[in-house]
Amino acid sequence: MSDVTEQQRRELGAFLRARRERVSPVDVGLPGSSRRRTPGLRREELAMLAGISATWYTFLEQGRDVRPSRQVLDAIARALGLAGAERTHLFAIAVDEPAPTSPDQVLDPEVARVVDLLDPAPTYVTGATFDLLAWNTAAAELFRGALDHGEHPNLVRWVFLDQDARYVLPDWTDVAQGLLARLRARAGRHPGVAVYAELEADLRGASPEADRWWPRYDVGTPGAGIKRVRQADGQVQRLAYTSFDVADRPDQTMTTYRRQKYGEIDPSGVR
User: Fold this and answer.
1) How many domains does the chain have?
2) Residue 112: what are its φ and ψ, rounded to 5°?
3) What pLDDT score was predicted for residue 30?
4) Which residues, listed in sequence order, are joined to residue 257 by a DSSP beta bridge?
5) How high is the pLDDT of residue 248?
6) DSSP assignment string, 203-270
7) Residues 129-144: what's their mean pLDDT?
8) pTM score over 0.90
9) pLDDT tens, 224-236?
């Protein structure tokens, strides 16, 4: 196992605490009580379910210098009911060494050419903090206003801080929560990196929703699905989208859209 930093240990503790507070005792076969002072499971209950010492688990949440094995992390993940992106995130912040410097925002020119070649399918590439690194004409027309903020406009800032985004995105709450979950996952894997801390502060300082949702520690990964977008003429169209990690640039993502065909099943299972 690689060494972990003090900031990374604190991040692990915050994630475990947020997830523990979401688990109802009834969900795991324990008696519930209306007299509980805190939401979710107690630390002692979670430790019992995971088969580990309550004191040792408390040290984990407190960010103490203890080194959980993969077997212990797996037991905690099962006790918390973690799967998919949440389980992956647990192992990433507990085991892997985070990036010590600002993430790479340099885009390969060949990737930018692919974005242009995909026009008229709206396509863009985002960096580690969701700065828009490349986009084609169709994307600029679809997400009008998102690209009007400097050399590298930021998708998260537009969604949360520009009121026009709520008009362009009829399902704004779902889109915003999903985007913030992906940012939260990346920030958790880069504790102490200034660009993430600055973006968090800006969002939470100006957006009540971001301030309320950030401590919940929802995490997500890029994927596929359906997004509704309101066009300039007021008509709402449903677009299927797919996201891909850029080769050799794990923090860069290409997302491309196409008009959804009638009767087509949503690949994400949700709107």
Assistant:
1) 2
2) -60, -35
3) 80
4) 241
5) 85
6) HHHH-HHHHHHGGG-------EEEEEEE-TTS-EEEEEEEEEEETTEEEEEEEEEEEPPTTPPPTTS-
7) 93
8) no
9) 999 999 998 999 9
Residue by residue, DSSP assigns 142-171 as HTTTTT-SSSS-BHHHHHHH-THHHHH-TT
CATH of residue 46's domain is 1.10.260.40
Residues 6+ apart with CB under 8 A from 206: 160, 161
The Cα–Cα gap between 18 and 22 comes to 7
- Nearby residues of 108 by Cβ (< 8 Å), 6 or more positions away: 246, 248, 249
Amino acid, single-letter form, for residue 63? G
d(CA 94, CA 106): 28
Indicate whether 113 and 170 sit together in one domain: yes
Residue 136 lies in a domain: yes
Strands 132-135 and 224-230 come out as unpaired
My answer on whether 191 and 124 are in the same domain is yes
Question: Domain range for residue 225?
Answer: 109-259
Establish if 1 belongs to a structural domain.
Answer: no
Average pLDDT over residues 113-131: 95
Check which CATH number belongs to the domain holding 217 and give it: 3.30.450.180
Average pLDDT over residues 140-154: 83
pLDDT in tens, 99-112: 555 666 789 999 99
Question: Do 81 and 114 fall within a single domain?
Answer: no
CA dihedral 237, 141, 244, 174 (to 10 degrees): -50
Cα distance between residue 194 and residue 136, in whole Å: 29
Q: Is the dihedral of CA 210, 213, 217, 221 positive or negative?
A: negative
- Token pair 């596929």: residue: 224
